[in-house]
Amino acid sequence: MVRSDERPGGKRQRMDYDDMDDEDDRDIRPKRTLASTVVMPSIETKSREERIEEMNKTEKKEVTTRNRRMFSNLLMGTLTRFQKDEKKIQNVEKIQAEKQKEVEKRLEDKKREDREKIMAERQKLFDERREQEKELRALQRKKALIQYAEAKKEHYKLLRNFIQTQTKPTLFFAPAKHSMRSLELLKASEKAIDGETNLYKRLWRKT
């Protein structure tokens, strides 16, 4: 007896059931849509592009930051080196200025010493010349006094034979013939003349 649902060629019918079951199973199972599989790669690609873009931005930012840092370091290094060089130059200039100042000071001191030496020599020569002139004047004065004393001595020597008056100006006379009074006056005159002569002798010795 053949079942109503059987068909000639039972095997084929079984296969049909299997096919039906497979179709039913496919209906029951979650269906895999092609849309999801197609869309996902686009989403992933977009996200990847965004990430790449972000990475590029980040990399650019890092590069910019690194470049700025390198430039800043280079600038600071250059500035520091420039400051050091400037400081060295200033130190060298300061040392040179101090040396120049010291040289100028030595030259000025030498000039001052030379001027003082010349002035001292001039003063010495002036003092020596003045002393020589003083000595010369003293010698001339002494010579004049000696000559004067000698002349007075000879003069009073001649006057010893004359009587000196008490009047002013003094007069000398010799009587034609002496008396007692004239002889006394003559002795008195001789004494006075001897006093004057001794005075000039003392003056001559002092010179």
TrEMBL record:
The record ties this protein, via Pfam families, to:
Pinin_SDK_memA
Q: Which InterPro entries match?
A: Pinin, Pinin_SDK_MemA
The residue stretches assigned to a coiled coil in this entry are 97-149
Q: Name one GO cellular component term.
A: catalytic step 2 spliceosome
| Domain Pinin/SDK/MemA protein, first and last residues per copy | 62-190
Q: Where is the composition biased (Basic and acidic residues)?
A: 1-17
Its keywords, alphabetically, are:
Coiled coil, mRNA processing, mRNA splicing, Nucleus, Transcription, Transcription regulation
- Residue ranges of region Disordered? 1-31
Q: Which domain of life is it from?
A: Eukaryota
Cellular compartment(s):
Nucleus
Q: Write out the GO biological process terms.
A: mRNA processing; RNA splicing
Please report which protein family the annotation says this sequence is part of.
Belongs to the pinin family.
The name under which this protein is listed is Pinin/SDK/MemA protein domain-containing protein
Q: Which gene encodes it?
A: Acey_s0393.g607
